[in-house]
Amino acid sequence: xxxxxxxxxxxxxxxxxxxxxxxxxxxxxxxxxxxxxxxxxxxxxxxxxxxxxxxxxxxxxxxxxxxxxxxxxxxxxxxxxxxxxxxxxxxxxxxxxxxxxxxxxxxxxxxxxxxxxxxxxxxxxxxxxxxxxxxxxxxxxxxxxxxxxxxxxxxxxxxxxxxxxxxxxxxxxxxxxxxxxxxxxxxxxxxxxxxxxxxxxxxxxxxxxxxxxxxxxxxxxxxxxxxxxxxxxxxxxxxxxxxxxxxxxxxxxxxxxxxxxxxxxxxxxxxxxxxxxxxxxxxxxxxxxxxxxxxx
Length: 296
Prior knowledge:
Elements: H1 2-16, H2 19-26, H3 30-44, E1 49-52, E2 55-58, H4 60-85, E3 92-98, H5 102-105, H6 108-117, E4 121-127, E5 141-145, E6 154-161, E7 163-167, H7 169-175, E8 190-192, E9 200-205, E10 208-213, E11 218-220, H8 223-231, E12 237-240, H9 245-250, E13 254-256, E14 265-271, H10 279-293
Parallel strand pairs: 3-4, 3-5, 8-11
Antiparallel strand pairs: 1-2, 5-14, 6-14, 7-12, 7-13, 9-10
Helix pairs in contact: 1-2, 1-3, 1-4, 2-3
């Protein structure tokens, strides 16, 4: 069993990128992690990790060992989960990471229904517009919007959300309602910087296309700040309808250029654990996908 534990520790070090991060994830001391990897290297008679001031880099042998070890660990974990969860409701703690805009795209009342349907499940919902370290934070599922980086993690597309030009009636009354995409060049655009967004946009209408660069004096990377600026009447932005759902329904915000389409935003579920996806992470992904499909 001790040898098996060393392989599991090595896989954790490989994924975390450092002995310290792996130790935090395994809830053990850093020296124990270092000794486990050294013991494995001695047993196999080859170097698995190259240590330098820039961190750890796996050797060719180390990469091959990780790939085979991860497949075995995933198979064992999946078998264990099937046995433990047979006929039982979801339980334990689920750690979910997402950009803060998630709570706008998928309404929190829907999340309440999910929690009530799974009374033995606890959820840590980490809403952060920055980049969390999914492995170090012990994330079970991450909800990502826009284009995915090639991280090597398992990913599943959950759906798409519509994007449009959104501003307040007061702003458009004063600045004029744009009739063509080019008209936006004369407006105080709030530039929302995130994957799948920014300054460059392609509008389309019945086969006609317009590619525009929409510079703005105000550039923001946090969804709530974008909302505050737009609703305060500073200027319009391009964002998902869900980000301004309640305001669009009440009339506090309106969509411009309704006859022009923008590329939709893809919403992904990313599973840092590799090919094995826990039952609770899979259930949460199913819930989000259902919530997206039920949106009008």
